[in-house]
TrEMBL record:
InterPro entries: AAA+_ATPase, ATPase_dyneun-rel_AAA, CbbQ/NirQ/NorQ/GpvN, ClpA/B, P-loop_NTPase. It comes from the Bacteria. It comes from Sporosarcina saromensis. This is MoxR family ATPase. Coiled coil: none annotated.
Length: 287
């Protein structure tokens, strides 16, 4: 079996053949749906490639970024993109400081500048929610130059060797726009699917240890049914969201299962036909 060996000090990568790659997969709480996915992403990080995580809402992209941060013991700075994101919220802003009767102007460093200087992870969530004209400022940060001329101070910043960029997108969601080619081209891209089967069971029992095995099994069956209907095109992808399923499991510890699924899964769907279909599927699993 393939085991990744990372020299995190010297940021070197090696692949060896041993028996226990799962120790890596578990680190930081993210469970990899495909064994090689976690390792391949770590290789990308060590090779200083900007990483783009592409997957539906609740598929574990943020958890994965947090797990990479835990694995490399590197703090993470985050940017949540929206149409209001501007250069100041990424790079920082000037402010007036009054001290002992004197005033002076100081630059408060934003997440990009801090992460570049200190070798942190920069997590850019929902990168396709930002206005396309906002992000080109990061092009030189994201390619081989790994540098930035701060337009507010004129400072030229060369990224620390451990500086890592991880971005996430939910493609095709309301409010998103396709990423422009020049930006997309700077990333290596990984599809992050929803967890299923044994791995999903591990997450459920780890987060909700007081759930009975029968309850967990029922939720796994319901999730399988929901996924089938997503594949058949009868339900939208978020019906199979792991986040929603976990929310439903948390509620089901305190209320009947149908109500838990209604609040955590069905009510989030826009279409009444989809909501009814979810509840029809659930009824077949309620004794
Ligand atoms: N592969 C996984 N391993 C561990 N936990 C997971 C995994 N997939 C989903 N989860 C759990 O599901 C929940 C949602 O995960 P997370 O917030 O990382 O999703 P996301 O893809 O970032 O969603 P969004 O795009 O909506 O921000 C968390 O509680 C997380 O622990």
């Amino acid at each position: 079996m393939n085991k990744l060996v990372l020299d995190t000090q010297k940021r070197r990568v090696n692949r060896q053949y041993t028996q226990n790659d799962h120790t890596l997969i578990q680190q930081g709480g993210y469970i990899s749906p495909i064994p090689s996915l976690w390792e391949d992403i770590l290789i990308g990080v060590v090779l200083q490639k900007p990483i783009l995580l592409k997957g539906p809402s609740g598929s574990g992209k943020t958890k994965l970024a947090q797990s990479i941060s835990a694995y490399f013991q590197q703090p993470m700075q985050s940017i949540n993109c929206s149409v209001d994101l501007d250069a100041e919220s990424m790079l920082g802003f000037k402010t007036i400081i009054a001290k002992e009767g004197n005033t002076h102007i100081e630059f408060v460093e934003g997440p990009v500048v801090q992460a570049m200087k200190n070798g942190h992870i920069l997590y850019i969530d929902e990168i396709n929610m930002a206005k396309p004209e906002t992000l080109p400022i990061l092009h030189s940060v994201l390619d081989h130059r790994r540098m930035l001329t701060n337009p507010f101070t004129g400072e030229v910043i060369h990224a620390h060797e451990d500086f890592t960029v991880i971005a996430a997108i939910n493609e095709g969601y309301v409010g998103t726009s396709p990423m422009n080619e020049a930006l997309k081209n700077r990333f290596v891209t990984f599809s992050i699917p929803y967890l299923t089967g044994d791995q999903l069971e591990k997450v459920m029992t780890a987060l909700y240890p007081s759930s009975t095995p029968q309850m967990v099994e029922t939720f796994l069956h319901i999730h399988e049914d929901l996924k089938k209907q997503v594949l058949n095109g009868l339900l939208s992808e978020e019906a199979a969201s792991v986040r929603s399923l976990l929310d439903a499991l948390a509620l089901a510890e305190h209320m009947p299962l149908e109500r838990a699924i209604t609040y955590a899964i069905a009510e989030k769907l826009e279409d009444k036909i989809e909501r009814d279909l979810v509840m029809e599927l659930v009824v077949t699993w309620v004794k």
